[in-house]
Design a protein that fits this description.
Elements lengths: L1 H20 L3 H47 L3 E5 L5 E4 L1 H7 L3 H4 L10 H17 L3 E8 L6 E12 L5 E10 L1 H19 L3 E5 L5 E4 L1 H7 L21 H12 L4 E8 L5 E12 L5 E10 L1 H15 L9 H18 L2 E9 L2 H8 L1 H18 L5 E6 L2 E9 L5 H10 L5 E3 L2 E3 L3 E8 L6 H17 L5 E3 L2 H17 L8 E10 L5 E12 L3 E3 L1 H11 L2 H22 L4 E6 L1 H4 L4 H12 L6 E5 L1 H6 L1 H14 L2 E7 L5 H7 L4 E4 L1 H6 L4 H17 L2 E4 L5 H9 L4 E2 L10 H9 L7
Parallel strand pairs: 16-17, 19-21, 21-22, 22-23, 23-24, 24-25, 25-26
Antiparallel strand pairs: 1-2, 1-5, 3-4, 4-5, 6-7, 6-10, 8-9, 9-10, 11-13, 11-16, 12-13, 14-15, 18-19, 18-26, 19-20
């Protein structure tokens, strides 16, 4: 337009001006020729200037566009419809590890493997055929440094002004971080949804914005009933106002709070939860949300309460156990010391309770204990405590006495509560109790002293005839002194030659001949006189003296019995082993050495052990029993039927013989239940292939009954009292027993 306008002005104006200035034809013609050359020069310069100006502008625009494309962090490339590269930016050059000049004019097959090139070409064709942009994700490794990126690729068909397809424009954006964040968010979301802990998110106005599935399951509220609505994170009715205020004070200060709260499910059921409540702060420090993490701990709380109960209460009677009753006694002593009062500690033991267990079964025995506990609770004063120490032993704590004589009223009420019969298994049974009483501070000023005094007094009440109460007295102190004297003199008894071994013969019922003896310990003290085994053996066990004493008995018995086994090869020597001896780790080695020294055959030695040894069990007991069995030593279970689990021990341990306790034998002719127990024990032994020995035979009626039951071996005063070793020689010469 500029050039045309200039040309028209030049033609019309220049000719008019020349004609006005020059009239000479020749000069006019010359000037017009000069004007033509000038027009050519000026128009040429004008055209060149215009072209140069616009060329520079276009080049600058191209440079700007190129710089813009190269500055982009995305991959940008241009291909023709055949897949030949027309252009690319610098980021794209790093993908192939080549410059643009090396890429232009080539295809993907020149830079990547055929499989990947086919993938690129496939999506190029999809975009071109669909005539719209195609978006897909590609994970590519860059050739320049080997790093990998996940790209979101957009491929757009390129057309000319006529609408003809000329190629495809591609843009690849790195979305690696975005994909990682999406993965993290997805994993976090799944973790929150799958978490067993309830998660609640609320805005500053306490409107819920999110809850997970655990919240729905625990609370019973579906998310649609909670999200978008105001929801108290703490139940205001079930929790104390001070606690709620403390929680919101902590949260308002920007600090989290955690602890145990009561909550309520949708159906109204209350439960315990452990809650973590915290404000969620925004970038500028303002509260953007409130976060609540809640765990249902109802089961744990119930277990804690059950464990707490089990730790302090007897499971059978629901009375306080030893732990709790001792704590209460300690508190009573503190109160009494402060108020100058008295406290009574009463030990109570049910009389002949063992017979109920043995004759009627432990289930019935448990019923008796429950009924006894109920009567005790009803008979004491309000504020007194009744506890169970174990078995049939109970304890009563009575405090706040100004006169110790007032304790008798409480004790009398307890005994009176036992006057009515007990309904046990459909039978009316009389059950009495013996009570021992110790008074604080007269009988002790510590727990251990009071308990010991009450226990001692309780045994005194039993010795006085049972079904009564007894106070701790000076006479009981004298009894304790007697125990100390026995222990003192017992230590020197072996060295002084005061101990001797007596033997009680054992007879075979069928042949009426003596087939063995039981070794029994006797002590004639130079200072104390004749001391019975029932008195000194428990003291020996408690003091540990039973181990050297037991070794003395074993050595003496093996030495004496060698002459008897020589006369009668089937002769048996029975020796009692106490639980304390059995815990001696050197027991098996000692027996092995003594058997070798004496020459006595191990198969003819019989060790009588109590059920208490087997009840303790444990690896040491099992190993010792196994070792003795391997040595060929026979094992006899003494006092059979007086424990709790005899049958299980017979199945578990290598027992060879059962000794029926004398208490059953002595009562079998007057008590049908005892007779049936003895008969059952004999049948059981015969069925298990065990030898059975009945001890305590003192009458012909008992002997005849045992013979009818086919009891193999018997012993007792009817046949022979324990005698010295010399008298055993004479008894062996007899062909059969001579009844006393």
């Amino acid at each position: 337009m500029i050039y045309g306008f200039f040309s028209l002005l030049w033609i019309f104006l220049s000719d008019t001006v020349l004609q006005m200035l020059v009239s000479d034809i020749q000069i006019l013609s010359f000037l017009q020729t000069i004007k033509g050359f000038g027009f050519v020069v000026i128009s040429t310069l004008l055209i060149f200037g215009l072209v140069s100006y616009y060329a520079k502008r276009m080049l600058a625009a191209q440079h700007h566009l190129r710089a813009l494309i190269d500055t982009l962090p995305d991959l940008v490339w241009l291909k023709d419809e055949k897949g030949v590269y027309l252009s690319c930016n610098r980021k794209f050059e790093s993908l192939f590890g080549a410059s643009e000049s090396e890429i232009v004019g080539k295809t993907d097959y020149d830079f990547v493997d055929a499989e990947l090139a086919d993938f690129f070409r496939k999506h190029d064709l999809i975009a071109m055929h669909a005539d719209r942009s195609s978006v897909n994700e590609e994970q590519l490794t860059f050739a320049d440094d080997g790093h990998t990126e996940i790209l979101e690729t957009i491929k757009t068909p390129m057309k000319d002004e006529t609408g003809k397809l000329i190629g495809i424009l591609g843009i690849g954006r790195d979305i690696t971080r975005r994909k990682q964040r999406e993965t993290e968010i997805r994993v976090l979301t799944q973790a929150v949804e799958q978490s067993p802990v309830a998660v609640v998110l609320a805005d500053p106005s306490r409107r819920v914005t999110f809850v997970n599935r655990a919240f729905e399951r625990i609370s019973g509220y579906p998310s649609e009933e909670v999200v978008g609505r105001a929801f108290e994170l703490v139940d205001l009715e079930l929790n104390e106002a001070e606690l709620v205020a403390e929680i919101w004070h902590s949260i308002s200060a920007g600090e989290p709070w955690q602890g145990e709260l009561r909550s309520r499910r949708k159906g109204g059921e209350q439960y315990w939860e452990h809650a973590y409540l915290s404000p969620v702060l925004g970038g500028s420090g303002e509260v953007s949300h409130y976060l609540a993490l809640k765990e249902d701990i109802s089961l744990r709380k119930r277990q804690e309460e059950r464990l707490q109960y089990q730790a302090h209460y007897d499971p059978l009677t629901a009375l306080p156990n030893r732990v709790l009753i001792m704590d209460r006694l300690q508190q009573l002593i503190r109160d009494a010391r402060r108020n100058n009062e008295y406290v009574a500690v009463m030990f109570l033991d049910l009389d002949d309770f063992k017979k109920i267990n043995d004759s009627m079964g432990h289930d019935v025995g448990d019923q008796a204990l429950v009924q006894a506990a109920s009567r005790l609770v009803d008979s004491v004063r309000e504020g007194d405590s009744v506890g169970r120490l174990g078995g049939d032993e109970f304890i009563v704590l009575a405090g706040h006495f100004s006169q110790k004589e007032s304790v008798q009223v409480v004790a009398a009420n307890i005994l009176e509560s036992f006057w009515d019969t007990f309904d046990l298994g459909g039978r009316e049974i009389m059950l009495t109790a013996s009570i021992g009483i110790a008074i604080y501070p007269f009988d002790g000023d510590s727990l251990s002293e009071l308990l010991k005094s009450a226990d001692t007094a309780m045994y005194l009440s039993k010795a006085q005839g049972r079904n009564r109460y007894a106070f701790f007295t000076n006479e009981l102190n004298q009894s304790i002194s007697r125990r100390l004297q026995i222990e003192e003199h017992l230590r020197a008894a072996i060295d002084n030659g005061e101990l001797r071994v007596a033997y009680q013969p054992q007879y075979e019922v069928k042949s009426r001949s003596m087939i063995g003896v039981e070794a029994l310990l006797r002590w004639n003290s130079s200072a104390l006189g004749q001391v019975g085994p029932d008195e000194f053996i428990p003291i020996a066990e408690q003091s540990g003296l039973i181990v050297p004493i037991g070794r003395f008995v074993m050595q003496q018995a093996l030495s004496d019995a060698m002459q008897w086994v020589a006369q009668e090869p089937q002769f048996k020597l029975a020796v009692n082993i106490s639980p304390v001896q059995f815990r001696d780790e050197e027991l098996a080695d000692f027996l092995r050495q003594e058997l070798e020294r004496s020459g006595f055959p191990a198969s003819r030695l019989e060790l009588e052990i109590t059920e208490g040894i087997l009840m303790r069990g444990g690896p040491m007991v099992e190993n010792t029993l196994a070792t003795l069995h391997e040595m060929g030593i026979c094992l006899s279970m003494d006092d059979f039927g007086t424990g709790y689990s005899s049958l299980s021990y017979l199945r578990r341990y290598p027992v060879d013989e059962l000794k029926i306790d004398r208490s059953f034998v002595q009562e079998m002719t007057v008590d049908e239940a005892d007779r049936e127990l003895v008969s059952a024990a004999i049948s059981l032994s015969r069925g298990l292939g065990l030898r059975v020995v009945a001890e305590g035979v003192e009458s012909k009626e008992q002997l005849e009954a045992l013979s009818e039951m086919e009891c193999a071996v018997v012993q007792g005063f009817l046949l022979s009292k324990p005698v010295c070793a010399k008298e055993i020689d004479a008894l062996l010469m007899q062909r059969e027993w001579e009844l006393s």
